[in-house]
């Protein structure tokens, strides 16, 4: 029943690409503006909507969940490839800015991982000490 997931994915992709192309024309850019991102958002919204709840049950639901889970990493990889190609064409400053953003992101991961909300177990432990 993965075919339902593929059908939903392809429908979202077609609508997203058409919307991105129209948006590009309206903005005066001869390119697709955000079509893949629009498709991704449509897929997330539709796969979680009440209208498609009957499709998201049982074997058909596993197909939709599979493609919903696979689509986001694919989109990220596609966007990263485009950004690298644009950076190489853009010159040294674009490459330095891209590398700096990645280094800062990696440096922030340990700091962000330490920030968390206290669990109920943490609150009980702190109450037992006083």
What does this structure look like?
This protein has helices spanning 2-27, 35-47, 58-90, 92-114, 120-129. The model has no long low-confidence stretch (mean pLDDT 75). It has a domain at 2-86. Helix 2 (35-47) packs antiparallel against helix 3 (58-90). Helices cover 81% and strands 0% of the residues. The protein has 130 residues and is an all-alpha fold. It contains five helices and no strands. This is Malonate transporter subunit MadL. The chain crosses the membrane at residues 30-47, 59-80, 92-112.
The average pLDDT value, as a whole number, equals 75
The total strand number stands at 0
Q: Roughly how many Å apart are the termini? A: 57 Å
Q: What would the principal axes of the Cα set say about the shape?
A: flat
User: Percentage of helical residues?
Assistant: over 70%
Poorly predicted tracts of residues: none
* Spatial extent as radius of gyration: 21 Å
Secondary-structure class: mainly alpha
The helix count comes to: 5
Order of helices and strands: HHHHH
Tell me the β content.
under 5%
Tell me the major beta sheet. none
Organism: Congregibacter variabilis
Transmembrane segments: 30-47, 59-80, 92-112
Protein name: Malonate transporter subunit MadL
InterPro entries: Maln_transptMadL
Walk me through the topology:
Elements: H1 2-27, H2 35-47, H3 58-90, H4 92-114, H5 120-129
Helix pairs in contact: 1-2, 1-3, 2-3, 3-4
């Amino acid at each position: 029943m993965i075919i339902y997931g593929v059908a939903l994915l392809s429908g979202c992709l077609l609508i997203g690409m058409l919307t991105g192309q129209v948006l590009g024309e309206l903005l005066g850019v001869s390119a697709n503006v955000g079509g893949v991102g629009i498709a991704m958002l449509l897929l997330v919204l539709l796969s979680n909507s009440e209208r498609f709840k009957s499709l998201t049950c049982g074997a058909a639901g596993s197909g939709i969940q599979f493609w919903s889970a696979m689509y986001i990493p694919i989109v990220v990889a596609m966007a990263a490839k485009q950004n690298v190609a644009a950076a190489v064409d853009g010159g040294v400053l674009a490459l330095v800015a891209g590398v700096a953003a990645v280094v800062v992101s990696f440096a922030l991961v340990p700091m962000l991982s330490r920030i968390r909300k206290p669990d109920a177990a943490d609150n009980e432990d702190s109450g037992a000490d006083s």
